[in-house]
Amino acid sequence: MANRKLKIGIVVGEVSGDTLGVKLMRSFREQGIDAEFEGIGGPQMIAEGFNSYYPMETLSVMGIVEVLKDLKKLFAVRDGLINQWTQHPVDIFIGIDAPDFNLRLSKSIKEKNLPIKTVQYVSPSVWAWRQGRVHGIKQSIDLVLCLFPFEKVFYEQYEVPAAFVGHPLAKQLPLENPIQIAKQELGVDENQKHIALLPGSRKGEVERLLPMLLGAANILYTKYPDIQFLIPAINDARKQQIEQGVEQLAPQLKAKIHILENTDSESKIGRMVMNASDIIALASGTATLEAMLMHRPMVTFYKLHWLTYLIAKFLVKIPYYSLPNIIAGKKVIEELIQADATPENLAAEIEKLMNVETAQIQVMQHLTMHKQLISGNTEDPVQAILQCLNS
Fold first, then answer.
1. Are 70 and 64 in contact (CB under 8 A)?
2. Is the pTM of this model over 0.70?
3. What pathway is it annotated to (predicted)?
């Protein structure tokens, strides 16, 4: 294997997966491993030389009802990849995030007896809901790369090969993180209070969540007229969508809302905005972990299609939705879900965090969890993948 170039298939479905994917590609090359990468990648991976057969946005579908609408398209993409790798097999397939798609793709690889090892990088939340999936994972996945230590413990109970590789952000982001420096880097006034509003990176999320965010911003503005709001946009399409939303729903806030767009393929703007903000209001997802690792006070929220929510509520086996609360095993940040996600409730929770003591209590808990995530014994993901390939 060492005498020829490795062919590695990777599929990512969102910005966070693109970030993990490009880090993994660089890690292979930094360790002197000759490899080429193909499948479905995002802009960061493509800029690094990744050959993407389909746009990453093809897989950016959330919610059971929403996925059902795009099922035919998703099947076509899966079949296209299987056909490609039947004719020109890769050595190993690595699914990053997007578990519903990637686990089915891995299952198809095994069913067709393709000579391809399968890895899932970022464990699906089987410990939280639909735990029966672990049996399918055992049949179709040769290795699970876990970001959190409790995930490896879970898989060991079912004799699923797993490696705790740690979360790259926990190692990358510093324990000391002064907000003044972050404000300078973003180019905003250090003396003003900034509230970050993050409605998500997908079109459907922005449509569903931006009206609530703007409603909360308006409530806060009437009480605190000097407050400033920052909204990141991952690309020009999202920026235009947000600008139109502000124009239609909150034109009186145009001077107070600053929409910042990515200027390169690194998709850094969301992180920069969160880092420079005194308080963060964000859609539940991986961004809550980033905010936690930046030690910024936050409140999280989410709204799903009503049918998706009813099904999820029936299936979810844990009391929390956000990663900081799941990691802590208790409520550290406020979660406003479905009917509770209103402009009034969101504004009230943000206002609570304007109290310095309240915010500091939350921040200290973020710091404690950050230290825990970098203190454990982690494996190198590249070496774990190579061991899987050679086993």
1. no
2. yes
3. Bacterial outer membrane biogenesis; LPS lipid A biosynthesis
